[in-house]
Structures are given as C-alpha cells and as structure tokens.
Amino acid sequence: GSVMEKVLQRRSLQLRNMQRAWQESPEGRRMLEFRKSLPSFKEKEMLLQAIAKNQVVVISGETGCGKTTQLPQYILESEIESGRGAFCSIICTQPRRISAMAVAERVSSERGEPLGESVGYKVRLEGMKGKNTHLLFCTSGILLRRLLSDRNLNGITHVFVDEIHERGMNEDFLLIVLKDMLPRRRDLRLILMSATLNAELFSSYFGGAPMIHIPGFTFPVTAHFLEDVLEMTGYKLTSFNQIDNYGQEKVWKTQKQLAPRKKKNQITALVEDALSNSSFESYSPRARDSLSCWSSDCVGFNLIEAVLCHICRKERPGAVLVFMTGWEDISCLKDQVKAHPLLGDPNRVLLLTCHGSMATSEQRLIFERPPRNVRKIVLATNMAEASITINDIVFVVDCGKAKETTYDALNNTPCLLPSWISKASARQRRGRAGRVQPGECYHLYPRCVYEAFADYQLPELLRTPLNSLCLQIKSLQIGSIGDFLSAALQSPEPLAVQNAVDFLKLIGALDENENLTNLGKFLSMLPVDPKLGKMLIMGAIFGCFDPVLTIVSGLSVRDPFLLPQDKKDLAGIAKSRFSAKDYSDHMALVRAYEGWKDSEREGSHGDASTDNRLSHNQSLVRAVICSGLFPGIASVVHRETSMSFKTMADGQVLLYANSVNARYQTIPYPWLVFGEKVKVNSVFIRDSTAVSDSILILFGGALSRGVQAGHLKMLDGYIDFFMDPNLSECYGNLKEELDKLIQK
Ligand code: ADP
Ligand code: MG
C-alpha cells in the first residue's frame, strides 16, 4: 500500500511540474487566454466547490459555453495542482463516438499533450489511453459495459454524464445504475451536464441535488415564423383566419408577386395543407398527419430555396445552416439548389452538407471559413443541433422536423417517421445562429404550430425496442427487469418490457424464469445486438466464422452499400451483382467484402483455421444467418405475376428498394429471414436472406433452444438431416464447442 502511495505521490509531482511548465509556455498562455474567454471560466471556483461539497451536481449551460472541454479539465487541473493528480480518475461520457474522440483530442491539445497521456478516450472497438490517463472520455455505452464487471467503479473519483438533456437510452440507463451505486461509493462525485434548462428533473431524481447554470454566451437571434418568411420571400399573405376546432375552415391565402403560377399554387397548397382540418391548439393526430407530408416534398424545398435566395440577395454576410430531416432530403435539395442560377453559382455560394455518413474531408470543410464574398450554406440533419458547432453561422433555416424513431409496443414495431421537433429543439436550432453575432432564424412553420410543439422530445428509452437493454439489465444482476426500469426517470410501458423479455426467451437468452442462460451470458458480453451476437456464436460453432463476422460487422454499422441519389439504379444493379443467385443481402455483403479483400491481397486465398473450415459452404452460412435472425421471418407469397411478403404479426410487408431481393421477379425459396423491420408508412423489412423450409425448421427457434438447454442429443437429428455432407465434418467441432459453451 504505502509503496504504491509513494509511487503515486511521485507521479503527482511530475504531473504538476509538467502542467506548470505548459501553463507558463507561450503556447500554453495563449491557450489559457482562450479558455478564460469561455463563459464557464467565470464559474470555475464555484463549480469546483459545489462538486467538492456535493455528491451529485447538475450543471446546465448553452452549447459552446465550455461544459465538456472545460469542466472535467478544471477538476483534473486542480487535482494536479494540489499534488493529488495521480490519485484522481475522471470519466466523462458522451452519447456519440465521434464527440468522445473529438473532445478528448481537443482537451489534450489544450493541455499541450499528445492524446493518450493524461487525457484519453475509449469508444467501442477503439481507444487511446495509457497508464497515465486520468481523464477519460468515453461513450455512455462503454461506461455501462464497465459497470457489468466493476459494479462500484473502483478507483474512479469523478463521473461526468454529459448531454443528459438528450435523454438518450444509455444515459437514462446509466443514471439508474449510478443512483443505485452512490450510497456504496460515498466518495465518488457525479456531475450531470445538460445544454438546456430542464435541470429540475435530474436534480429531483437525485434527491434535490444542487443545480448550477452557466449564464449564456450566444447573441440574440430573431425568430421568423412562416408568416414572416412568406412575406419576406415575396409571398404576400392576404388573409388568414384562425381555424376553429371543427376544422371546417381552411384559409390562408398567399400571393407571390412575379412568381411563376405553379410555384404560387404550391406555396398556397403548402400553407393550406398545413392548416387544414384541425386547430393547432389541440394538435390532434389528424393535424400531425396532415403536416407530416410537409418538409419532405418538393413544396417544402421550394420554400427553403426561396429563403436561401432571400438571404443571399438581401442579407448581411454570414453562413447559413439549414436543418432538414435526413440524408435523402438533403441530397434532393442539394441537387435542386445546384441547378439554381444564383445558389448554384460556386463563385457566390459554397454548398456543403453535414450528416452522419459524410466523409472526414467534407467534415473539415464545414468548419472552414469560405473565401470572401462566398456564402457558406450547410444542409444538415439534426446532428448540427448540439453535437457539432459551426462558429460562423448567422442564419438558420429550420424545417421543423426531424426523423424520429419511435416504438409501437402494441405491434412490436420500430417506426421511423419525420415528425415535429420539440420546443427545446427549435430553441436549440435557433441558438446556432447566434454564435458570433446577432443572428436570424427562419422557422418554416406558423407560430401556432410552434406553440403546439411538445416541450421536450420523448426520451429514447420510451421510443426504442428494449431487447439489448433488458439483456444488459439481466447481466448486471440487479433484480428483475421490471423493478429496475421502474426506477428510471421515466419508465417504459410494461408491454414494451414484456416484448423484450419474450424476445430474449425466444432466442434462448433467458430461460422460463427470466434467468440468463449460458447463451444469454455470452450475448450480453458481445458489444452487438443480441441477434447478431447469436449469429456470431453460431458461426464459430459451425466453422464459418469469417463470412458471419463480415455480415455482423456490416449490420452493426450504417449500411455499407451507399446508394448515391443520382446513381441509385446503377448502384442497385452493382449490388445485386454481388448477390448472384443467393437471394440474400447478407451474402451480397460477404461477396462485396471478399471482392475487396481479394483485390487487396491480389488473389492469394486460404484460411485453413478450424473457425473457417466450412466458410465456403453457402447453405451452411445461410443457415447460420437464419439462426441469428429468427424470429424475423416473412413468407414469400407468389401470385400469378407478382410476389408479396407477409409476416405473422404485420400481414403484408414491403422490401426496401435497395434490397437485392426487391429486384427479382420470383424468389425460389418459401421464406425470407430479416434482422430489422421498420414502419415508415407501411412496414418495411431491410436486409433479408431467402431460406428453405428445412433451414428454417432446423436453424429457427428450435436449435437455439437446443443450444441453450445443452440438449446435444437433440442436435444429432439436425446434423444428420442437413443435406450437406460437409456438415458431418463440423459435428465433432460443434459438440466440443457446445460443451465448452455450457460449462462456462
Ligand atoms: P459545451 O460542452 O458547453 O457545448 P465545449 O466545451 O464543447 O462546449 O466547447 C467550448 C468551446 O471550445 C467552444 O465554444 C469552442 O469555441 C471551443 N472548442 C471546442 N472544441 C473545439 C475544437 N475541436 N477546436 C477548436 N475549438 C473548440
Ligand atoms: Mg458539450
């Protein structure tokens, strides 16, 4: 003990010397000057004291005020300065990988160190940290995973949970676990950070923890609602009657002077459409429906275009940020704007996009200042709402929508629809315009629609399937799933929990009494969806690990097949070429990856390891895919000239247009297995693989129950029955693997 103590003391002194040397260097001083200009700096002493005195503190402050980069750093610096640096260990969670990495890099550069020294990061499958790392930025998922094996977070002195206002599922989950742990770790400090003012909710969850607000930073932003925007862009509002509750009247007429007739009609239709059928005060589902078609059609685009023209012609210099619902909308609008005589002129407008799947080179462009007299316009998803800050934005155009995933527990179906944002989001979007000078925000919806927005978005926990979450709860061994989730800030509905438990039982991760099976234990350790985890385990057991690993990797990230808007058809054809006669999106993935690998290593094949002895066996790989994706099954219904698909729960379902199976006239298999379905307007299934009756019987539910219960006898039949003689080869291996699995 005391030897260790001495080592740490010595290390602490080193840390202090290094920190002082940096702070006194010219570069360090310049950096310190910048940091002192951030609003959080004024509150530094107060914040440090509050954290020292209270186990839990809730801190709010607008995006950019210096919460993430400064607050954990203040703690680190003051511990180092007091000669205790080596004794502290600070964790700060981020909802997204990209921010965990970016912030860690920023903080280490603010400290004049390479990344991985006193400041590091850890995200899934990647990290930069060393034995001297005392401040670690990680995703909330990583901290949850750590809690699985280290229930009391031994050795950790401070935990920051950042961006809690987003109400991400992992953050809500973390708060339950941390709240339960605090009494056992009296010395641990928990700091919650939020970009909005709803701190009371979190404070009362932690028994009235003190709240500290870091006063603002942004300049005032003028809000223009649709009424003003129409006038401004030359559409004159001639009459507007507030609509009564019965929705009999719908009048909001506009006239566009000098505008082509068609355009005028479109705008009129837009507004009438928006205001038809319902009063917005009541904000009935019908109103929601009639509004939901709005931003993602060309009518909305014309309005956005008109606003952009207005800004370029009439407004002061400054970059423009346009919030749209998703990648499709962004690329459609981009095409439209590029064809515009003014907006499409590269000498006057620099048009950029900002969304989840953009290339890093493009990402960097967003932050750069454009040449003089060129106006930067960034078309963005709601990613630019809080997690990315573009400093020179002066104008914001807000379409009022975001693609939101919700979960319909009754039909056990995730839904993905553009829906109205919350008031908090609208405020946040507006705030992006006031970073460097007073700004303007154009909300493309009437003020009365804004008034009807919900205050905050529904927490993610209440709008996602809970399969993975419930598995993790079980592996934490903290009582029943129901009890655990009832301790959440807002609990999901019991039916959603029941669906998840049923699912876990069905795939063999939980037994009848809701206890984790051996399979379940394995699945909870793998950082992938339980379905995919099961596919991996089966791939290993059956000796075809590589193709299955490729599939699982492909499905764990965004679709690796990008279908560029303008070359959609060509891309589709190219993709289906990978699928040959497999009738499988998953096999297409494997072939695409292998094709790439082959071109890398120029044709030299040959993995003879036991894990891959049977990787060449197509039907086996197909069977393993089936074992993972069960119970996602649709039957293929052939009529005379057409083909349709049905599931037990949903009736008819449709295939995504980019599925290879959507390109065939007929599919010579009776079933499709799929991993994901989502309700857009109909229920769609994404990637699918066609399978035969025998595969479904053998590798659908029953086999997993065999694995779970260790009924090896039961498996004898499968192996014999299975048509491929190669299978007997893997049988010995299978038995061994299963024995191991069950003993563990
Ligand atoms: P908050 O967490 O409150 O939103 P941050 O701590 O992330 O704020 O950022 C504080 C300030 O630090 C920002 O306003 C910005 O000026 C600056 N900053 C943050 N990240 C970077 C970066 N990667 N490069 C340059 N400046 C940055
Ligand atoms: Mg932040």
TrEMBL record:
Catalytic reaction list: ATP + H2O = ADP + phosphate + H(+)
UniProt keyword terms in alphabetical order: ATP-binding, Helicase, Hydrolase, Nucleotide-binding, RNA-binding
Coiled coil: none
Any single GO CC term annotated in Swiss-Prot or TrEMBL for this entry: nucleus
Residue stretches making up the Helicase C-terminal domain: 303-477
UniProt entry tagged with the keyword Plastid: no
EC number: 3.6.4.13
GO molecular function: ATP binding; hydrolase activity; RNA binding; RNA helicase activity
Residue ranges crossing the lipid bilayer per the database entry: none
Stretches assigned to the Helicase ATP-binding domain: 48-215
Similarity comment text for this entry: Belongs to the DExH box helicase family.
Protein name in the entry: RNA helicase
Native species: Nepenthes gracilis (Slender pitcher plant)
Residues represented out of the complete protein: 219 to 962 of 1125
